[in-house]
């Protein structure tokens, strides 16, 4: 679907994905053209519940574009972030419930582009995996049954295992929404692009062998 859309809760399709997507949260000015999905995070937009116990601000949110794949899958994209401030990020996002979600991020954390993950079960954890060169990296979310895995890659060929986890009960995990998120928690906003988007209807053959 070429061109741009700018609306709340609108179903859209990408040719690479076998399921429709819908916009959530603040307006991300999402657009798609020639295989490139683009989204914009506004100033101080993020989804994170501090583990120190502060409540999530109801106004705290970030633009998301999500859909519900069936069965086992891998969702892959090459993510490029227009870094301007600490913690700006392009994200592959997984949503199971209002306080159950996970993020696989290419994030400026805080001084260097870094692969980071967040898993929220009421409150959020936050973990850095490894630093990458430049403003782009490949990200992959996978599901089998009620288990999820995060991988990242510098070239889209050799994948580094980041984490495996469960989220929600089996029924909610199988109904999870997955897709794309842009964030700028402390900055004035940033642009994120997703290219080489790919969907595979299976679980990776090996989690730690680079496949």
Assign the CATH architecture.
Sandwich
Number of helices: 1
State the end-to-end distance.
Answer: 30 Å
Shape: globular
Counted up, domains total: 1
Tell me the number of strands.
17
Please provide the ordered H/E string of secondary-structure elements. EEEEEEEEEEEEEEEHEE
**Structural class from helices and strands?**
mainly beta
Poorly predicted parts: none
Oligomer: single chain
- Fraction in helix: under 10%
Overall average residue pLDDT: 92
Radius of gyration: 16 Å
Structure overview:
This protein is an all-beta fold and 211 residues long. The chain has a single domain, classed as Jelly Rolls, CATH 2.60.120.200. The protein contains one helix and 17 strands. Strands 2, 3, 6, 8, 9, 10, 11, 12 and 16 form a nine-stranded antiparallel beta sheet that branches. An eight-stranded antiparallel beta sheet has the order 1-4-5-17-7-13-14-15, with no helix packed on it. The longest helix has 5 residues. The chain is globular and about 40 Å long. It starts with a strand and ends in an 11-residue tail after the last strand. The mean pLDDT is 92. InterPro entries: ConA-like_dom_sf, DUF1349, UCP022704. This is DUF1349 domain-containing protein. Pfam families: DUF1349.
């Amino acid at each position: 679907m070429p061109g741009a859309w700018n609306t709340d809760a609108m179903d859209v399709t990408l040719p690479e994905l076998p399921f429709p997507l819908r916009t959530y949260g603040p307006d991300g000015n999402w657009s798609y053209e020639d295989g490139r999905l683009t989204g914009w995070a506004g100033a101080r937009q993020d989804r994170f519940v501090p583990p120190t116990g502060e409540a999530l601000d109801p106004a705290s949110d970030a633009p998301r574009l999500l859909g519900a794949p069936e069965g086992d899958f891998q969702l892959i994209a090459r993510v490029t972030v227009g870094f301007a401030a600490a913690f700006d990020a392009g994200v592959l996002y997984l949503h199971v419930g209002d306080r159950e979600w996970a993020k696989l991020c290419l994030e400026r954390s805080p001084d260097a582009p870094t692969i980071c993950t967040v898993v929220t079960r009421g409150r959020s954890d936050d973990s850095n995996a490894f630093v990458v060169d430049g403003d782009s990296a490949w990200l992959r979310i996978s599901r089998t049954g009620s288990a999820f895995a995060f991988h990242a890659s510098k070239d889209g060929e050799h994948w580094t295992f980041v984490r495996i986890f469960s989220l929600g009960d089996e029924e909610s995990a199988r109904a999870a929404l997955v897709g794309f998120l842009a964030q700028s928690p402390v900055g004035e906003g940033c642009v994120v692009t997703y290219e080489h988007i790919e969907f595979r209807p299976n679980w990776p053959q090996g989690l730690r062998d680079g496949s």
